[in-house]
């Protein structure tokens, strides 16, 4: 019985490794190509690029910004999915081993066969809800941080602008 459980755990882990490799290699490349095509087409459609250049505070290097934002989105999404799959697989492996080792758990006079497995799952669900409650505000903060990083990364520093203009004017005088 224990050998069959170990074989099941090994098969689950092997499947998990195949899924991780697929996410890393195949899906990331295909998704990146397609997302860059879609975002670039939307940027070029209806002369959006021209309208952006006419704005007072137009972003610089918009094509590079699109590519880097798409890559960041893909990487973070794949990392999230991989973490979720790994967590599910690890909890299944853990449950199989724990179920084989667990006996009867008595709670308030009630006998629960393999009760420790149920206790662990209840604990994991509770911890997940607490993490979601704590992490929910971080979504907005992360979005704002990415926006500020993009603006800072691609726009010239405010103090550099007057110096550049002065340098250009001085070169023209000579």
From TrEMBL:
Swiss-Prot/TrEMBL keywords: Membrane, Transmembrane, Transmembrane helix, Transport
GO cellular component: plasma membrane
Record-given protein name: ABC-type long-chain fatty acid transport system, fused permease and ATPase components
Pfam families the UniProt entry points to: ABC_membrane_2 (PF06472)
Main localization category: membrane
Classification via InterPro entries: ABC1_TM_dom, ABC_transporter_sub-D
Biased composition (Basic residues): 156-174
Topology in membrane: Multi-pass membrane protein
Residue numbers spanned by region Disordered: 154-174
Residue ranges of the TM segments: 92-110, 116-135
Lineage of the species this protein comes from: Bacteria, Pseudomonadati, Pseudomonadota, Betaproteobacteria, Neisseriales
Provenance organism: Neisseria meningitidis alpha153
Subcellular location: Membrane
Coiled-coil regions listed in the entry: none
Domain ABC transmembrane type-1: start-end pairs: 7-155
Repressor recorded as keyword: no
GO molecular function per UniProt: ABC-type transporter activity; ATP binding
Source organism, top-level taxon: Bacteria
């Amino acid at each position: 019985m224990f050998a069959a459980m170990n074989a099941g755990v090994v098969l689950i882990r092997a499947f998990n490794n195949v899924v991780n490799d697929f996410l890393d290699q195949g899906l990331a490349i295909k998704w990146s190509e397609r997302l860059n095509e879609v975002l670039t087409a939307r940027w070029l459609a209806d002369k959006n690029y021209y309208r952006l250049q006419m704005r007072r505070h137009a972003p610089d290097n918009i094509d590079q910004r699109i590519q880097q934002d798409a890559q960041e989105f893909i990487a973070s999404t794949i990392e999230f999915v991989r973490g979720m799959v790994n967590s599910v697989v690890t909890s299944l492996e853990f449950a199989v081993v724990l179920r084989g080792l667990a006996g009867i758990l008595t709670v308030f006079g009630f006998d629960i066969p393999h009760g420790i497995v149920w206790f662990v799952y209840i604990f994991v669900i509770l911890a997940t809800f607490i993490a979601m409650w704590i992490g929910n505000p971080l979504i907005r903060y992360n979005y704002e941080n990415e926006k500020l990083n993009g603006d800072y990364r691609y726009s010239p520093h405010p103090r550099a602008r007057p110096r550049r203009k002065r340098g250009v004017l001085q070169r023209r005088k000579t």
